[in-house]
Amino acid sequence: xxxxxxxxxxxxxxxxxxxxxxxxxxxxxxxxxxxxxxxxxxxxxxxxxxxxxxxxxxxxxxxxxxxxxxxxxxxxxxxxxxxxxxxxxxxxxxxxxxxxxxxxxxxxxxxxxxxxxxxxxxxxxxxxxxxxxxxxxxxxxxxxxxxxxxxxxxxxxxxxxxxxxxxxxxxxxxxxxxxxxxxxxxxxxxxxxxxxxxxxxxxxxxxxxxxxxxxxxxxxxxxxxxxxxxxxxxx
Length: 235
Known about the structure:
This protein is of the alpha+beta class. It has helices at residues 4-19, 22-29, 33-42, 48-58, 62-67, 132-139; strands spanning 103-108, 126-131, 146-150, 165-169, 178-184, 187-196, 200-204, 213-216, 222-232. It is built from six helices and nine strands; from the N terminus they run αααααββαβββββββ. α1 (4-19) packs across α3 (33-42), α1 (4-19) packs parallel to α4 (48-58) and α2 packs across α3 (33-42). The longest helix is centred in the first third of the chain and has 16 residues, at 4-19.
């Protein structure tokens, strides 16, 4: 039997291609954006009611959506009506005119001024423009949960170098394996993390000149600021 998470994640991505974006999916099915994003990124299983609503919204067969079996589209000509949904197409890049509505503007902070999820944020230095299409379909995050900052120091040299620009997802603030921004006391760190038993987190630099260390997540002086979703580098 197919792995549901993997199979469903692929099928829900096809649904997003039909509907146009994760935002459209969340609005049509009337769920929070992070919930819809988990369906797409993690293959999280929606409720039966939501599964039915998704199938109806996208014009696909419920059995196909749930199991991967049978025909995909309800229409016999394998085309979905444009009156209810739109095909997923990147915004045109050859047009001389730029539509500002195709972009979202993500706040840019110094590393040690990044907001903590749920806390007060300082005014950003400026904003960085990203295409909505890219944020919605490749990062699969709510733009309101994102910040831009840059790497300081060489502890992650080889993976993330000093001065690299990173995109931080503040909604991803639970202990997981990955690359995260952490606050330890007043210090903000960007490190690879590994979850350990008993509420511990192993923090691992990539530069061999630096030692790994363990954090106690129960310590109030430790916080997970967000997950690094993307980086950019000047050549």
